[in-house]
């Protein structure tokens, strides 16, 4: 079994803008890149992942592998196009998961293998930080506000995978405090 992992990444403009009161633009950009590197490093160590694709408005510096240009239609529309281009099994992971471990991704893949689709919510139970879709399964991407509920509404049969590596994304001051308390380098 070989999965394609898609990692959306913002490479231009304001990154992590909700952290602007705490971190400078340069610090937020550096944090964003560190987390992205962590996520793709974790993915690279998983034998079931055959391909890692970055979806970004420009190729990330130093990224020599697969890249699909984000043309600005919005994340869900861009992922729909990627889904049509990628045959087989697909996993979408956000790039801001500093605690992600290979065991988290392996658990999500195993859940999708059992149920066809698996969803990993954030710690609040409102956002979707990763979704794994077996080839042939359907879902309309609904990333953004209340994405977890929207994904579950479409696919109540999806297996939910709650693991620490998926639950903490860095979007708010509280997220940043939690990450720092767990030893994540943020600046």
From TrEMBL:
InterPro entries: CofC, Nucleotide-diphossugar_trans
Keywords, comma-separated and alphabetical: GTP-binding, Nucleotide-binding, Nucleotidyltransferase, Transferase
The keyword Nucleotide-binding is assigned to this record: yes
GO MF term list: GTP binding; phospholactate guanylyltransferase activity
SUPFAM superfamilies given in the database record: Nucleotide-diphospho-sugar transferases (SSF53448)
Pfam families: CofC
Protein name: 2-phospho-L-lactate guanylyltransferase
Organism: Tardibacter chloracetimidivorans
């Amino acid at each position: 079994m070989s999965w394609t992992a898609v990692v959306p990444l913002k490479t231009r403009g304001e990154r992590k803008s909700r952290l602007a009161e705490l971190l400078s633009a340069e610090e937020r950009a550096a944090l964003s890149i560190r987390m992205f590197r962590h996520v793709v490093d974790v993915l690279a160590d998983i034998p079931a992942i055959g391909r890692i694709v970055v979806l970004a408005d420009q190729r990330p510096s130093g990224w020599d592998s697969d890249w699909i240009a984000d043309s600005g239609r919005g994340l869900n529309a861009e992922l729909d196009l990627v889904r049509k281009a990628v045959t087989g099994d697909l996993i979408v992971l956000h790039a801001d998961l500093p605690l992600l471990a290979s065991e988290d991704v392996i658990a999500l893949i195993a859940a999708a293998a059992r149920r066809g689709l698996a969803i990993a919510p954030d710690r609040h139970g409102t956002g979707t930080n990763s979704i794994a879709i077996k080839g042939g399964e359907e879902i309309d991407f609904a990333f953004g506000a209340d994405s977890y509920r929207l994904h579950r509404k479409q696919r109540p049969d999806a297996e939910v995978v709650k693991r620490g590596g998926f639950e903490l994304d860095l979007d708010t001051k509280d997220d940043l405090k939690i990450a720092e308390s767990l030893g994540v380098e943020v600046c």
